[in-house]
Amino acid sequence: MKAMSGTQPPSDPAAYWRANLALVATLLAVWAAVSFGCSIVFVEPLNETRMGGFPLGFWFAHQGSIYTFVAIIFVYAVLSDRLAKKHGVD
Question: In a 10 Å sphere around its CB, with 0-12 CB exposed, 13-18 middle and 19+ buried, how is residue 2 labelled?
Answer without folding.
Answer: exposed
